[in-house]
Amino acid sequence: MVLKVFFPSCCSSADSGILVGRWISEQNSAVILAVVHFPFIPVQVKQYLGEVQRVTKVSVSVLGSWSNSKQEKEESLSEFLEDLGTIFCHEPWIQISKEGDSKFWSCSTIQKHSKNPQEEEIILVYYDQRKVMLSHLHPPLDTAGQRAEDASKLSAIFDTVARSRVLFLTDRYDEGPIKLTHWQSDGVEASIIVELMKQASVPACMLLTFLLSLLSGICRSRVLKFWPLSFLWSKLSTCEQLGHRLQHLQVISSNKKAQNQNQLMRKANIFVSLLIDVALGMLLMSWLYRKNRIGHLADTLIPVADHVAEELQDLLQWLMGAPAGLKMNRALDQVLGRFFLYHIHLWISYIHLLSPFIEMILWYVGLSACLGLTVALCILSDIIALLTFHIYCFYVYGARLYCLKIYGLSSLWRLFRGKKWNVLRQRVDSCSYDLDQLFIGTLLFTILLFLLPTTALYYLVFTLLRLLVVIVQGLIHLLVDLIDSLPLYSLILRLCRSYRLAAGVKFRVLEQQDGKPLRLLMQINPLSYRGVVQTYRLPTYSCYPRDSWASLCKKLFLGELIYPWKHKGEKQN
């Protein structure tokens, strides 16, 4: 039988006394939490441990005695240590003593009430009480069988120390009858700044909750459900990001206490993400309003839009000729070319009509950076969508025309094979056609087949332009997703205090000698950076589509539209 004794390293130099902790009978383990020094009254110790057990719901008791032989030994002290086993009545009674300056310790057990006492092999495990107290054990998600059982055993050790927080509030400055040694014996670890922030956060959270409730009530009102406003709210990525940040503010301003460690870390990650987002937005705003950069940006925007329009006109003129030596249908080519050239002319007129107001619009848009860098990036994505609206129109026209011809050719091809599409049963059935139907079908098939290359070329060109715009918007939204979903607080905690995120423990042998207990040092294995991101990653509401390559190729071949936004209510994790 192996007895495991977990001893806090902070008690190695403690004065002689009794060991207070929890006995885990399922694992045959003893978790030492503190050392109670002499002199003391056993009745007062029992009363104090009863109060601790009532508050923490942890079965804390006296497990044994501790003797530091650096002190001057007295026979009365050794006799008193032996008699403590009969006073507190714990089986087995653990006796640990430090042998002067020697690195060897002696650890033994006494079983007075057992009829057949067995000699047990003892393993003495040192652990850093502060790190175990402040850490949170994350067992691997893919553990099974024995590994999952080991993780649960370690969780019991971590949980025992974490739930005994009340026991660690008694330090050496307390004037009570009981003196303890633990990781906070020299004084309770605290920060005046943190305590002041806790006190000031209560009225601030109440005010913020009230304002957010008003704002959320306005957002849920029926005014925003009418057609123009509901359409803009569902299509503009800025509105989606503002709604996402509003939910984040409601989470961190909630007066409900976090139920577990994951909820606490989620709140902390959201708070740090908002803080860094707003800080980056303020830096961007200060850069924009310095040295009249907004005026220079407005002066550059109109020439760039004109240059893009001229390039599109040159591209259409090239398509209306003989592009790459291809023989096109001249009549359809001229009709499509003039149709798109007219749209470009309308677009240039629209841009020049807005040119006097561009600088003022950019000036007010720059103020939105105070809401965060992600809001500014979403506004940039919406501006790109508005400035390339003519490219989107060209793509829609070309896609609809190409899709119509593809579906027409597929339907006429079924006619040649004597089949048709059954709308009711959603399948292809056999069908007999007369001579007139076959003749008309042949003519239509020939016309659509010879007009397909011209339509396909326009569709291909405008699809490539559309994909270029979608890729630019996708890169912007990927950056927004990175800021929104990255658990920055957890990563900072992993970098500075890695023991707070424990994935497990490892044991290092300190000494091993015949006749002496095996001494081990328990060290915490921190969670990997990838594990931190996977465990604490925040949900995002990205407006960028995440279709697979196969689905995207299928949409391009069939002429289906590629939207730069998601449908409302579609949540992306």
UniProtKB/TrEMBL annotation:
State the protein's name.
Answer: PIGQ acetylglucosaminyltransferase
Source organism: Lanius ludovicianus (Loggerhead shrike)
Keywords, A to Z, come to: Membrane, Transferase, Transmembrane, Transmembrane helix
Which parts of the chain span the membrane according to its record?
200-219, 270-289, 335-354, 361-388, 394-416, 437-461, 467-492
Signal sequence range:
none
Could you tell me the superkingdom of the organism this chain comes from?
Eukaryota
PANTHER family tied to this protein: PHOSPHATIDYLINOSITOL N-ACETYLGLUCOSAMINYLTRANSFERASE SUBUNIT Q, PHOSPHATIDYLINOSITOL N-ACETYLGLUCOSAMINYLTRANSFERASE SUBUNIT Q-RELATED
Please list the GO terms describing molecular function. transferase activity
Q: Which GO terms describe its biological process?
A: GPI anchor biosynthetic process
GO cellular component terms listed in the entry, alphabetical order: endoplasmic reticulum; membrane
Q: Could you read off the lineage of the organism from its UniProt record?
A: Eukaryota, Metazoa, Chordata, Craniata, Vertebrata
